[in-house]
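Final paragraph of the annual report: two paired records, presented back to back.
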Amino acid sequence: MKILDRYILTTYLRTFLSVFTILLLIFVLQMIWLYIKELAGKDLDLSTIMKFIIYGLPKLIPLVLPLTILLTSIMVFGNFAENYEFAAMKSTGISLQRAMASLSVFIVALGFVTFWFSNNVIPWGEYNFFNLRKNLAKVKPSMAIAEGQFNEIESTPYNIKVEKKSGEKGQFLETVVIHKKSVDGRRNATTITAKNGELVSSENSNILKLILFDGNFYEDVYPRKLKDRKKYPFAKSSFETYTMNIDLSNLNTVDIDDKSYSNKYNMLNVNELDYTIDSLTIQHDNAIEDFSMVMLQRTSINKAINLARALPPEESEEQYTNPTNNTSNTKTLENKAPTTPLDSVYSGEIRDLFSPKKNSVFVNSAISAVNSIDQLIENKKTSLEPRKKWYNRHVISFHEKLALPFACIILFFVGAPLGALIRKGGIGLPMVIAILLFLTYHFIGIFAMNSAKNDSFNPILASWFSTLIMLPLGVFLTKRATADKGLFDFDSITVPLKRFFKIKDKNKDNFKFLTSFTNDKLFDAITNYESLGYTEATRYEAVTLLNNRGVSTQELVEKHMFKSNAFITSQKLAKDYKDHSKFAVTLYIIGIALLILFFVFKNNKLPSLESASIQLSVVALILYIIYYIKSILNINTFYKHINIPKRKPNIVFIILGLPLYVITFVFLRFKIKEDLKLNCLESLK
């Protein structure tokens, strides 16, 4: 290893370890604060708390490691650029890629280690962390009766909710609601309500003694007859004082090290996930196949086929060609259909073969059958939905393990050239940029995965989505840093914006003096611009100013300032495009905003707002497409009229403008304005 490579690598590693340690401590404190409710007040020993932290550490690595790589890369390469170390390297012929070579090998090796960690250590940590939390939740539940929510007490049939707690130990309760499950544990059979209550047992007691005051006792009654059950009968009684003793002795013997739960998707490695995904796929296919067989049996098609196969040919022919030999058929047909040979085809209406009463029966039977099948399909969809979500979670977990190492590599190629471009080291600006980039990366990933879990987004693409978003950014920054360009070419953005918002440069011609001219002087400036020392651009500004003062182009044509009426048509076509493009961009913004709100409402489970937003979004986007097509037709007509086909926008630009209209809108408006100006100058005498 050369001295330069060793220097860059050691500098990077020192910063990497420091940043990783600091960020890990921050995230550990955040994790403890997040789960403080599960730890507080349960008299846990130090070893249990340490287990809680150690088991929770691996799940933090997918957050800490990408942020560490991004921040370290920006800090180190920004520091090199700030201290002119990159300038010294370039003076000796060492490019940015050569400076990044040793670190690239280290990051790739780190990617392999990250995959091993996510495939082995993270499932181990999730397995132990989940089981430890599950066991801690059973310890002394009398300490965890929170206000304003139902508190289920493990190993007991009680679910308690209190509106408010008061007193030194929180022993006085207000507005108490208690649900007691039935013997089978499937339903709430008893409900107890009370205005006030008091906990009189000690914290170390195995008996939770609860005294309730001024309340009611409701108990469901389940008659034997199904008809009576639909009336939902219940028994009600009132009390002034009611004492409850809840046995908690089984909860104080909880084994903290019990690890009986092991089938969660984030507890499995790649091989186990692959096997589980295959099993879930087979189960889903079998369920669909079984359901299809049920649907086939309900149609009675198999019965008809088997019956036709079982009938002798003579009997079948006689039954369908000579219905008078069959009394049931005679009643059905009621002499409305003539006897036809076997090889003939009846071409009339089927309903004419039967009486109106029979037709009514057939229609009602068909409607009932269709409604029944529709209900079965809806029930099957409802039952398959949780299975689909469970399958999606396994697929996401599988691809998350594969995407994490690639994310680390890509974020390095985002951070390193970005640091070289901003030329700033230390903690300040690099920290701000790194956090903004990481939050963008992280929230895009969360948004995609939440959508995939709800089956509204492909789960494979969701796992890679944020990484794929960062990939073109890494390529862009690496190219600009290699070419020794700035972070952005601001001129390509500011110049069109200045033109669009009519911001003039100081050294550009200023036409403000024309505003003091009378109309006659403006006419003179148009016709005698050369003798007065004006430019051709002055003529166009004079025409525009006259139009704004109410002097139409038609009047200028009548004054023989234009060669013909052609420019009037050009102005009309440009105005039509301007109006249609305004409608298009407004509808585009509304449609995209409503589409974003649709996903927000969907993830927050607001179905009514979700439905309204997607419907309005679709309407707005359809109208946008209509006005976009109108504006493109206006552009084609405009350039056909002014006879400058070379100035016409490229078809690729127009196609790309459909999804990116906010960007193309500015450039198209400016282009039409400039070409209208050229047409005006050509039309003037």
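The closing record of the year follows.
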Amino acid sequence: MIFKRPTPHFAALALVACLGAAPLMAQELTDPFLNAAPRTAKELGRIEGAVQPTTDFTAPERFETNPGGAATTRARTDADAFSQSSANISFERELDFKVGNGLFKKLWVSSPSSTLASDGLGPLYNARSCQRCHLKDGRGHVPEGPGDDAVSMFLRISVPGSDTEPMSKIEAFLLSVGDEGRQTRPDPVYGGQLQDFGVAGQVAEYKLGVDWEDVPVALAGGETVTLRKPTWRADDLGHGPLAPGAMLSPRVAPQMIGLGLLEAIPAEDILAHADPEDADGDGISGKPQIVWSFEHDRPLLGRFGYKAGAPTVREQSAAAFNGDIGISTPIFTNPWGDCTEAEADCRAAPHGDGDARGTEIDAEGLDLVTFYSRNLAVPERRDVGGAQVLRGKQVFYEAECTACHVPKFVTSRLKDQPEQSFQLIWPYTDLLLHDMGEGLADNRPEGRANGQEWRTAPLWGIGMVQQVSPNASFLHDGRARSLLEAVLWHGGEAQAARDRVVALSPDDRAALTRYLESL
């Protein structure tokens, strides 16, 4: 089996190699949003031992039941399994979590309104609240036919950039260290994503459409699985045709658990797994996404989103408020959200930023939503010691799934985030970009990610996704109706692992599925 855990010396070399061979990069890609204490030599030794991959599949590993460390919450059998606060949260901070939950669920209304604290919706938007997309803090779903809504998914859109356009800050930075990135721009009319709702007097931008094609896949042992291949469409365009060369990418709202713990992983530990030139020859070429932080005004490691396009939970939350709901924040201050200059009626419509809040949600409100999002707990594992689960775990490792779905990390020791501080966590992701092949390609670059590259999805809690939201499905566009279907869509760097799963006996494939369901 292969587990990409470099030695400290190799990690230091990889840090320079994967980021353009410029020593400045190692300094730039730190974690200014974390109030972290430096690790001691003794701690580094303990951490190195704790994150090593197991070779014993006869019994669970120590602490494996608690994937979120001390923040892990007890598993529930109802739809609220993803809505619990960190188990190690204090009574006083629990109040902030609950207030943040209220803001996460709040339905925004259009301006002008007598409810000044809640106005500012849109004018074009995808949902009226965070909760409308992240159903019960879980995954969204694909519209399954006429009359079914697309509230929990949308289409991102961009057009190729040209050499005559001024470079963005991140493009200029990447060029300065020898990486050109992928130059794209928002559609000149429709912006960076398509909104399918408008307040009174505003024309929605589009309606999501999809056609499905059945793709049978033969498996060893005489089994067959039928995959469904989507072709996504932007129907009923409200503001004329898309720009020439427009690239569309569907996105289903992901589950919200464990975000604060992912944010607390030191950047250097993530970068230690990067191998963009496949120097070790294992066929896995993970590379870090590098994004411009609008809050910190500097390049940072991308962690959140399907292509790791956001560096922090706070910035990701602010971007969702602005793009999905049309709510301005102290980070993204446009009161009209994603509306472009070409959508003059949208920009001229009443907005909700003319009161004491300053922006439509103020810094305090954004901080509370961020705190809530950081502290949505990962549920404990189920049946971690079951014979079929342990066999499935061995299959998972032997198929070399851990080359990208890295099981374990230890978070930073944080002075002001006790819930996330110095925890052994089991997210099953390296948070890096990988080529997933033509089958999953959206053919839309984003930052350093090309049209076939995606961030490795965390697997913790994946077995409870459909318990929380029965209509939920998997992958970035919800095409996979089961975990096995999701595996069978893997290509590119994951093709060899996928082919090993195809070649398994039916009993071993069932064990693999059972293991994933236990996560």
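The longest strand covers residues 207-218. This concludes the annual technical report; the extension proposal builds directly on these records.
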